[in-house]
Amino acid sequence: MTALLSGLRVIELASDRAAYAGKLMGDLGADVIVVEAPGGHASRGYGPFVGDQADPDKCLWWWNYNTSKRSVVLDLTSEEGREQFRQLAAGADIVLEGEDPGVLDALGIDHPQIRATSPQLIWVSVTPNGRRRPDLHEPTTDLTILAAGGLVWNCGYDDHSLPPIRPSGGHSHHTASAFAVMGALTAVVHRDHAGIGQHVDVSMIAATNVTTEVSSIDYLYRGATNQRQTGRHASEHFTMGIQVQTGDGGYCTNPLGLTTAGNYQVVMEWLRELGLEDEFEEFFFLQMGVERGGVPLKVLGVDVEATEIYRAGREALYLIASKLTMSEYFVQAQTRGIACGAVYAPDEALADPHFRFREYPVQVEHPELGRSFTYPGLPFTGDTIPETIKRAPLVGEHTHEVLAELANR
User: Fold this and answer.
1) Nearby residues of 306 by Cβ (< 8 Å), 6 or more positions away
2) Could you state, in order of their start, the residue ranges of all structural domains in the chain?
3) What is the model's pTM?
4) In sequence order, which ranges of 246-341 are alpha helices (DSSP H)?
5) What are the pLDDT digits (tens) for 194-233?
6) Can you identify the CATH homologous superfamily of domain 9-212+379-407?
């Protein structure tokens, strides 16, 4: 099998901001060469570490974000290192970097200088506000980018006396990296037709802003301010809850609720199977749901009877969930054709039989440690998608190999 991005070479300047973009392209088969400073990139110092040993080659952050890459150490403060970088870039399809505006220009290795002699090269920058507005670049963190982009405002609980909840785990970096990959591959298609590369300028704040669902659009075009709601879409108006707590303390979501006559018939039968028909005093509302042919979402809050039927359906699901474990409720709801999702912790997600069936958790060998580790695999499958990923490189593991390739080119 030829991997999807096989034959594509990417030179990545190691950074927090763009690491996930390089990982995605590497996992899809591109030859991604990550350039590190002597001693390794600073992100190798992020904890936690395997065995709690602060070792740049045992950093779990680095392991996660740098799979399927090769590492070369170059001293870009020296003319020799800069020249080696120029040669690497000249032989690449894409340069991926997340440096602050002005840093690479001061070294003489920014995209105008490199692309002057390599017009076919695609240069991808990932910065907080984009390269076109260097005056806007103040110190940022994942949290401040998410806040400035508006995403934090959308996330949290119905109780607005509680502060918003930030998406965790480098969310702004992931979002910007996804746009970086889309932009880079679109530029590859353009280059293959037009014969010329381009500069793909990714603003992390803009990327997060356009992924606030409709909140930004509603504010700009309707003057509406959407409000955060527990486990569901932010909305100008308060909507019914969708999370149900199960008997073992877990949670599941029913995102679309009960809208068809069949849904209400199924819930009635489910209550009967569990011996809960008499315990649920509003059982008659479910029958009304069947007789009405269901309840379209668009009539909620307008049609009083339909709204009460829908609410009773939700209450029935809450009662059923209270009698089952999270796993039981999730599987039984899905089996009955009721949209449902389990709210998993990361380790629970990797253990889920659905994920295991599609081979999402993968074993990655670490010969240097004499063992393998369980990793989250690729988020997609296909005929040209590699079945597994490779461990992240050790510091400078491929320096000799990569420089030998330059010498032989």
Assistant:
1) 292, 295, 296, 299, 300
2) 9-212+379-407, 241-343
3) 0.91
4) 261-273, 283-292, 304-322, 326-335
5) 999 999 999 999 999 999 988 999 999 999 999 999 988 8
6) Crotonobetainyl-coa:carnitine coa-transferase; domain 1 (3.40.50.10540)
